[in-house]
Amino acid sequence: xxxxxxxxxxxSIQEGENATMNCSYKTSINNLQWxxxxxxxxxxxxxxxxxxxxxxxxxxxxxxxxxxxxxxxLLITASRAADTASYFxxxxxxxxxxxxxxxxxxVVIP
Amino acid sequence: xxxxxxxxxxxIIEKRQSVAFWCxxxxxxxxxxxxxxxLGQGPKLLIQFQNNGVVDDSQLxxxxxxAERLKGVDSTLKIQPAKLEDSAVYLCASSPRxxxxxxxxxxxxxxxxxxx
Lengths: 110, 116
Known about the structure:
The structure holds two protein chains of two kinds.
Chain A: E1 5-7, E2 10-14, E3 19-24, E4 31-38, E5 42-50, E6 55-58, E7 61-66, E8 71-76, E9 85-93, E10 97-100, E11 104-109
Parallel strand pairs in A: 2-11
Antiparallel strand pairs in A: 1-3, 3-8, 4-5, 4-9, 6-7, 7-8, 9-10, 9-11
Chain B: E1 5-7, E2 10-13, E3 19-24, E4 31-37, E5 44-50, E6 53-56, E7 65-69, E8 75-79, E9 88-95, E10 106-107, E11 111-115
Parallel strand pairs in B: 2-11
Antiparallel strand pairs in B: 1-3, 3-8, 4-5, 4-9, 5-6, 7-8, 9-10, 9-11
């Protein structure tokens, strides 16, 4: 299957802690993207990492990609209540297509 | 910059009825997508347009779903007749460059469809 699978599926942390989510996939990819979805802002792109990259940073986000293990991780440092959302990994393939995983629900407790 | 617009935001219909959703992508974006997101799952691609041509509709249930993108801008997605399992949020997304495998996608707010 093209789609990613996130792990853990649900995560509850205290504000200020770090949150780590993992994603695994089964086929070859062009890139891997992470999206966030909450009721206020809908589905929003967070970060894209190309298949030839191993690590990427954006603000409080750090993404790693291991194509040999077909896995990626998303780290959110110093979490805030506003980070409460569902996080999806999406594998990019073909002509700019995305296959989304089932999502990872993160709750940040103030 | 205006985002992706969708309407209506909510729709409730009886099974076997028809329904249509409308999407206006970000101005100048070449590629437009329709996704179906069932509660508790990630979005599933239904159809991808590049300008006004269909690139991928392999996961579109063509016996009941249809979509068009007029003049390479707005798009409509139609379901006729609707089934209970069509209850979902229908998301429209657009991305700027055709033929580029490294585009992010910009999503609209979605239309929540409930089929009774």
